[in-house]
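To: structure subgroup
Subject: Chain for Friday's discussion

All,

I'm putting the inputs and outputs inline so they're searchable in the archive.
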Amino acid sequence: MPEPLVDTGPETGIHAADQILEFTVPAAAAVIETVDSGRPRHRRDFVMWLAIGWLSVLTFLAVFADYLPFVDHYTTVFPGEYKQPPSADHWFGTTKIGKDVFSLTVYGARLSLLIAATAIVLGLLFGGTLGLISGYFRGRSDAGISMGVDIMLAFPPLVLALAMTNFTSGRIPRAAAVIIVLAILSVPPLTRVVRASTLVYSNREFVIASRSLGAKNGRVIFREVLPNVMPSMLTFALTGLALLIIAEGALAFLGSSVAPPQATWGRLIGEGRTELDDAWWISLLPSAVLFLTVLSFNLLGDILSKRFDIRESSL
């Protein structure tokens, strides 16, 4: 049994405060542990694993599509089987020229995910570098980079993407042009996110201590600031990846993405929009796959932001 709290002077008052902390801190920790281990956390974990499972299955199908017996090549045509509804032979039905929609969706996943993933990696490299420079050095470099980011964000992204893809048409491969365009579009928001996080950590005690010990700016950035900024970069990258998948789909829908016969989700949805009355599955089922994929990336990004306690900043 703890001793009774008797206030007989300053020292006993301190002793009483220690006893109060002895009771309240473990109690508060127990409450927090109970809340964290309750149903909301289990539900969040279930959603996370469900999203990871969907993305894992989709990635497996996209990577090994050439070797799977139930996935036909995207150039395969089934004569006489035009606009066939979903069945045991064709899970997502067939198109107006007799191609299997499920196979086109799988190959579309390969190309759409590859384009979006490559673009977001390039965006992280350039946008992350600009954000670190802007948030760490500040001054004129911060003003110049921020002005450039604001100018790029002022342009409508879809109009800018269409202009750049049309400008590069015929000069470089279409897939490379789309990757470059989407990477450029991802740089401004990534720069702002990394800049905001860098501003927070550049004045922390461990950074100041590293500077006072004579560490150079490069070492401080890569050894002290970057590891702390990385969680927010990766979290935003997941959300950005989902947005780039939609952007590529919009470009393909408008005919500005990869050329036929290569399949992407956007092109498949665009080709089936005129057949909605009698062949709804051509557009609707690939749209459902696209929706579930984007939703999974968004859910994972949201879960990671809560796990790393990442808050949006208006800096």
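Points worth raising on Friday:
The CA atoms of residues 242 and 298 lie 7 Å apart.
The chain has one domain: 68-307.

D.
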